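Office hours follow-up: a student asked to see two folded examples consecutively, so here they are.
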Amino acid sequence: MQEFEKFTISDDGVLTVKSGVTSISSSDFAIYLGAIKKVVLPEGIRTIGPNAFRDFVSMTEINLPDSIDPKGIGDGAFYGCTSLEKIKLPKNLAEVPQNMCFGCESLNSVEMGDEVKYIGRVAFGKCTQLTSFTCPRELTVINEGAFVDCANLESITFNDKLKIVSYDAFSDTKLSRLVLPDSVEAFFAAVSGNEFDFVSLPYKADFDRADSFLELDVRYKDKIVHGNRDEMGSVITGDPKYGAILVDCETLGGNSLVFEVVPKNSKIYFGDKEGKLVVMPFADIRAKVTSRNELEALRTKQFPKLLDFWFALKDSNKNMNKTPLPNIAVVKGMPRDEIPQFYLNNNMENWVEISRIANCQTDEGRSSLFGLAHALGVFSNSGAESKEATNYIKMYILDNYSEDQIHEMFNFNAEDTPYNPEFAKFFMQYFNKNPRFMQIPDEITDTITDYMNAAHDSFKKVLEAFPNKRVVTRQDNDRLTPEIVGKFLNTTSYKNVPSDLMPLAKTVSKYGYSREAFDKLASWYQEGVAIPENRLRLFCEPDTVLNTGEDRVVTYELLGKKNPLCAVLGDITNCCQRVNNVGGNCVKYGMTEPNSGFVVLRSGSQIIGQAWVWYDETTHQLTLDNIEVPRAVQNVIQKDSNYQTEIIDCLDRLGSGFVAGMEKRGLKVSKVTIGKGYNDFNNILEKHYKTLESVQTLTEYNGYTDAAGAQFLLTTPEQERIKKNAIYNMMEQTR
């Protein structure tokens, strides 16, 4: 038996925490994680820290005393315990933390007390042997991905206090029957990837993406209308007495119902939670409603009142199609295929107000104004955004420009003009100061191009290219300006560029580099590409985690010498690592030296961080000089512990990848470190990695470096061997 300050470990792998210990953390015994088969905790223990038993891959059993505080279990406490078969939580536990049992592939039994009110993000994700779950009596919230990828989960017993079921809570499971209690108020795309035989949902709940249901009951008081999903993904319900109800919550928003009346394909009722009712006969593209007084009265009533009215209307058949919609003039002259889109949007009263002031006489003028209204958010689901866009158009567009000018300036395609809040802010910030703000001259040809439409259509890509730039910010250096957007959109290449340098030119030109700066980068690029393969001294095994393109899946990549991104990483992360800047030597060294290069970290497809990396052949030390992160990414990471865990996991894999990649090619590695000078991840890394105060800096290099003062020790060959032995032992035990 081995004895330590807080615990003992028996020869057969039983870890026993000593009596009197009230708190344990991941640092207490993580080095023994691969050998522990059972954990015994004393009565009186109060808290279990985040990741305390993470990756205890051999542990099959653990007791959790009832003395643990109601919120005393930290995030990821049993993450990756692949041999754990059952878990009984303390009776007074109030919250199941995020990632608590994520990846516990053998877990087949979860028992928790009735006091649990909240189940955190992916708490039981990928527990593939779990077949059933019963909600505790007080449970009110099942958070995002709580049971995602539980491939054998086929039954859920709900309580009568549950209120919120969040995104992907039960996605990709075996659930085929879902009956939600009337207490549920919100159900957000919680069952994507499932196929259902029967679903019953409370009428009053907000739904997002009900399109994964094959069969649905819409319940209202004593009435139940039953139906099936159509080929378009909407839910169509049919009833001999009440006609048909089409539920497409992804298109129309929460609590939105579309009522179809006989004869089929002739008229459709549009209703929403604000109590509006519109009947649209698609046959002649004319809009009709009930009497004007009845329509105004409906707008003040709640959603259930609308259902009362609808059932009464269907029974009586008296009040259909009496009067034209009061604003029928609004759609006069509008392209016919735009009219359904117009009626499917919220806040149409604001559009009515704009249309009457504009009084456009031509289809072109009205279409351009309609497209601009879409782009700026007049039809946004947010009333505040809609009103802001309406007031802006009235003040700065309609008061200053004629119908022809509106068409000339804003020739948006009204059918394909999605609302992007960031573009709307960008437009409103600059247009009233300079109406020609997106007319950018080409520095080479001196021609002027209007990039208004291109800016709108490409704004998402613009934001991805400059993740450190924001539309609204007090920092001049962080501001996204029309000049930056114009340079990104102006893809004019430099003159007389050889074909082998075209990828570099295309990348560099987006960041507005002069021909002189490009020529310098091109010479470095050619020097690096010409290095013979047998002279290269920096290698890393590819990341074992696939880049799925989804958010929050953090992966790494060591860029090759032919990758043009090497030249502009400083621009992407807004650091000094740029040609002709204080960190210009980092760019040159990484592009031209056989023992240096660049690593990028990606969240999904977006670059969230990068580091210049070098290998010192004298000391055999490999160092990431720093990790530079855009400010916007920093702000998100600091608030999301799961995101931080993803980053640490990625860096762990990166260190292993470097050691394995170098050793495979006969290159010795003494340790892998990360600079601590201006590292944007310092507050995260210091919780997980040891700091080396006495450091070895790069020899024969006189440029700027952040790794000169202190470094984090990421890994050593010895640590990698411990990891490999733990994996080998686990495989042997499995056999």
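And the second, which I mentioned at the end of office hours:
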Amino acid sequence: MSPAGGRDPDLLLQDLPEARLRPRRRIELGLVWLVPLVAMAIAGWLVWTSLRDRGPLITVSFESAEGLEPGKTRVKHRDVPVGTVEAVRLSPDLARILVTIRMDAGTEPMLHDGTRFWIVRPRVGAGGVSGLGTLLSGSYVELDWTEPGPARRTFVGLEEPPLIRATVPGSRYFLHAERLDGISRGAPIYHRGLEVGQVLGYRLEAERGRVVVPIFVQAPYDRLVGPATRFWNASGVSLGTRDGGLELQLASLQAVLLGGIEFDGPARDGEAAAADSEFPLYRNAAAAAAAGLTRKVPVMVEFEGRTRGLRPGAAVETRGIRIGTVRDVWLAWRDQAGGLVVQALLELEPERVSPVEATSGLWTRQRTIEELVAAGVRAQLRTASLLTGELFVDLDVYPDAQPAPLRMVRDLPVIPSVPTELETLSASLTGVLEKLAALPLDQLVEELRGAIRAAGALAEGEKATATLDSIAAAAESLRRVAAAAEGDVPALLRSLRQSAEQARESAAALETMLGPDSRTRADLNALLREAAAAARALKAFAELLQRNPEALLRGRPGSAAR
């Protein structure tokens, strides 16, 4: 039997119906399905395009984000939008503002170490007004760059717009000085009165004890700056003394507000200085001119008198020509002088003296300090300005000066000094007043009084009255004689008449002068009193000058307070 209950499996298969293949039913899509498919394709294309055109994301930090609005504030370069501000937030330390910016595609070459960002907003300063266009359009972030460098995505923004754009041709230099002296950011750079650049800023180098001032000189004027070019402070207002008077110099309004710097030139032999070169900044044009004199000879001068008005920087002159500068002045004790002396350190510049002999025109050798002192060269203080009381040191030859050996103090030669003209005059007046005080003024006054009293007694005596009577009688006799002889000798009579009249007038004048109520006698008495008072005043003046010789210039002590 078979497992199928005794039936044959083949017979069972024959009983099954025949299998038939049917084709698979197709799913038909309507036109309505095309709309979402097209929308999905467009969305995908937009996403891909957005990702493809999306620029880098950068972060710029500022101290203030005034005027910046996320999603609205644009980033521009030469007024062309190149990005948009996406977010503004505080830094983790709360010290600065972090601005997230989405740059446009293709701006990657702009983002490197030399890229600078700053916020353009209305600004009012000493250099002028800027950013007025943002009053209507709103603030925006400006982008600029200098030299390309490594790529970056984080930057520190500038708080002030740069004075010079990267596209402006020119060269940058660095000036260094001990003091800033009124130089401000944006101050003009002048060459022969023409503005050719600007001061970019300043910084203090404490470790080197100086101020560094970066400047920019525009092309083609930067070709005028050579290795030997000298820069000096040309601030707007300069007040000083010159030729014994005041000198006031005024520059442009911009230089008055910001200061200014000027340089000489052009470069020697057409050689221009390399960019970023360093130069010293001199205080004024005179200091810059003196810097060209490379040889300096230090000497010392000692003064025993008063030196008020002699300060460092004062001139050292010879016959009105400046040949040096006073570098320092101090007090020193010298036992030989019996007290304090004033020592002045001078810096002579022998290059200011022509090396050509005045008569022959040939080159001559330079004289040593010892030879000059032996020839009679002496130092004397003189007044440079009566208004300010400023003094200068005058070196000249004094043939009558006492011979003096050359001394060395602190390894410096000491040039002897002579008293000032005022000290010499004061000494002469003191000698005259001492001689005047030594005269017997009281005895002379008494003798003068006795002579005046004798003259008065003579005028009041009987002899004088008799003399006047005799003169009057003689005149009358002459008149009678002249009348008797008038017909014979007319000429003689006229002469005698004139003589008689003159004699009468003389008698009347003498009586008027010597009479008890005469004005002459009163004048003589007044003269006596004034002479006595003058004698007392001269005596008091002589005693005052003996005690205070400087009173001849400054007046009686305490008179200013009264």
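Two things to take away from it. The radius of gyration is 53 Å. The longest strand covers residues 321-334.
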